[in-house]
Design a protein that fits this description.
With 66 residues, the chain is α+β, with helices and mostly antiparallel strands. The chain is built from 1 helix and 4 strands. It has one domain.
Length: 66
């Protein structure tokens, strides 16, 4: 994580343990999240996309990772 500036970087501090999904995991940070499906690289999600995902029931909503 040092390439993102640790807690001073754009991810911010970790604020949750990772959430296990049926096909991956999501650790939450102050200003973003990293979505990772099993066997794939993680995707850094922040801003409006993350806000919409949060408002639409997280991994249980229509924007869930599949």
């Amino acid at each position: 994580m040092d390439d993102t500036g640790w807690e001073a970087g754009p991810l911010g501090n970790p604020i949750t343990d990772h959430t296990d999904l049926p096909n991956g995991l999501v650790p939450g940070f102050q200003d973003s999240a990293i979505h990772r499906l099993d066997g794939q690289d993680g995707y850094w999600v922040r801003g409006g996309i993350r806000d919409r995902w949060n408002r639409s029931a997280y991994e249980n909503g229509p924007l869930a990772c599949e």
